[in-house]
Design goal:
Radius of gyration: 23 Å
Number of helices: 9
Distance between the termini: 41 Å
Order of helices and strands: EEHHHHHHHHH
Structural class: mainly alpha
Number of domains: 1
Number of strands: 2
Strand content: 5-15%
Shape: globular
Strand order of the largest sheet: 1-2
Helix content: 55-70%
Length: 259
């Protein structure tokens, strides 16, 4: 639980909030978990149905797939597609992590994870209109691209083994950065060939990569911020406390390039 009591002005000074509140963290799914008397959110009816449809024995992997695929479904349905920067990169990571977990359990049927989109659509009929065909096509395209990356990474690893090249943490990370070849998969692939690798410096490499990606994201956001400044003098009145529906006029729109 979080007790919101003080406001930080950014200079280390704190003052009492006029409106204090208590954040219990009890979102919809946690409430559902309480009402259905389950140990975790993953055992509630919505999640359980998705998880049960996924092939494999590893329950943790199945939970990750269910969670990530659902998040990707809603995000793609809102118009955000996989890319290398910004919010699109988050979608890419969600799909690829789900695909990776599916690959480890059943690499011959990795595309089967796409079927969960149909279950998600069914669960939210009447609440959210999901264009499942478009969502599934976007996810399929990303997974197929990921599969190619896995094969490219595997080919590179095999060539390095043939040449007796050393697998340093930088090499392993480059496989991830260049081909999107998961580090866990590199470790597993090499372990099967009796090759050990030292990943002690991996956290530092991850941080450097994250900083680089963050820089790209900031650059992309600058144009968005500049565009929103055009409409700062315009103010929208929130009427959600009194109405469930209302009509509005679109006065400005922002495209991906910030125009």
């Amino acid at each position: 639980m979080v007790f919101s009591q003080l406001n930080n002005d950014g200079n280390g000074n704190y003052e009492e909030l006029k409106q204090k509140n208590i954040d219990t963290g009890a979102g919809l799914e946690r409430i559902a978990s309480i009402m259905q008397e389950t140990d975790t959110n993953y055992e509630t009816d919505n999640f359980a149905e998705i998880i049960e449809s996924i092939n494999g024995e590893n329950i943790i992997s199945k939970r990750i797939i269910a969670d990530h695929m659902r998040a990707a479904t809603f995000t793609i349905n809102d118009g955000i597609e996989p890319s290398n920067i910004g919010r699109g990169y988050i979608v890419r990571r969600l799909i690829r992590r789900a695909a990776f977990k599916a690959y480890l359990m059943d690499k011959e049927n990795i595309l089967k994870v796409i079927d969960v989109v149909d279950i998600i659509k069914k669960q939210f009929i009447g609440f959210i209109d999901i264009d499942e065909e478009r969502v599934k096509e976007v996810i399929k395209k990303e997974i197929l691209s990921f599969e190619k990356n896995i094969q490219s990474g595997l080919d590179t690893i095999n060539k390095m083994i043939e040449k007796n090249e050393k697998f340093t943490d930088k090499v392993v990370f480059k496989l991830f950065e260049t081909y999107g070849y998961p580090m866990e998969l590199t470790q597993d692939t090499l372990a099967k060939k009796g090759i050990e690798i030292d990943l002690s410096n991996m956290d530092k490499l991850r941080e450097e990569h994250a900083a680089k990606s963050k820089g790209k994201t900031k650059a992309g956001m600058k144009s968005q911020i500049k565009s929103t400044q055009k409409v700062t003098e315009l103010c929208s009145k929130f009427v959600g406390y009194d109405k469930l529906e209302t009509q509005s006029e679109v006065i400005h729109s922002i495209e991906e390039n910030g125009k």
